[in-house]
Amino acid sequence: MTKQIRTKKLFPVCLLGSIVALAACSYSTNFVVINATNNPIEVRYRLKKPMNPNAPIRLPEVPSVKLISELDEQTPWRELPTSRFTFDPNTRMAAVSLMPGEGLRVEQRKLSGGPQDDGHQAANFAIEEINIKGTSGEVTFQGEQARKSFVPASKTLSILTYR
Amino acid sequence: MKVHGKSYSPVDDARFKSGIPSVLNIFQDNNAVTLGLYDIHFNPAQVNLNGGNFDSLDTIVEEVAHTVQFLQLWAHSAEPPGGNDPGYGEVKNRWAARYGYYAAKGRWQNGDGYKNDVEKWAKNRKFDILSALLSDKKLVQQGNICGYDLTNYSLARPDW
Question: In A7, A75, A104, A145, which residue has its Cα 20 to 30 A from A47's Cα atom?
C-alpha cells in the first residue's frame, strides 16, 4: 500500500522531469544588485580592462532594472534613462542610482557551458570593483570579492543585497 | 539544407517566439528552448533579438545550432524507414524523444542531464562560429556586430 502511494506520488515528478529533459535549451546567470532599503542608493561598478586592447571601452549594455518582485518573471529588464546612470570610459566606472525595491542587473553570463572551476568562473566575470553607497553606509568589493559578493539564489540568479 | 527534397535554412527559416511555456522553466529560467525549427521559445527578459549584450547573441547562435540538428534529424526521419516525410509535427516529437534519450545518457555519464551530446555539439558549433567572428580584427575594433556587444564576452568549449 505504502509502495503504491509512493509510486503514485513519484510518477508526476518523473513525468515532469521527462518533459523538462525533452528540450534543447540554454540559460544564463544574472548578477543583480538589490536595494532592500527604503531610500535610493548609488551603485558604482568598474569593468575589467577589455580582453582585446583594441576594443572600445564602453558599457556592454545599458544598465537595466526590475522590481524585486519581478525577478523571477519573464518580463524584460527596463533600460535606464541616461539621467539615472553615468559611465566614464577612462576609469571604466559606471554609476547608477537605484530606487528602493529595485534590482539592477550588472552582469549576465553563461556559466553552465564551460569549465566550472574557480579560475574560469572568475575569468567569466567582467567587473573588478563594486561600491554601494546608501543610508546604511558604504561597502566596496574589489577583485575576486566583487564576484563572490553575489550569492547564488538559483542557477540563473546571483544577488548582492544592500540592506 | 535538403530535407525530403525541400530546402530549409536553419537561419532564415528559424522562428523565435517570445515567452517560454512555464512547464519548460520549472527547474531553471531558460534563455531559450528549441522545440523545433519553427518553435524556438525565448525569454524576453534574458534575450534581445535586436542587439544588446554578447549573451543574447550567444544564445541565438546556440539555438540556431540546435535547428541544424533538428533539420539533420528531419532529413533522416522517414515513415516508414526509407519512405515519406513524416512531417514537422512528428519530427518535433522525435526530437523531444531523442533529446530525452541523450539527457538521460548525459545524466548517467556526467551526473547532469544538461551535459549531453546534443548540447555539446551545439555549444561546439556556437564556439566555432563566434570564435571566427571574434578573430575578425575590424569587428573587434568596432566593438559590435548588428548591435550586439563584442567588447565584453566569454567563450569556452563545453567541458564534458
Answer: A75
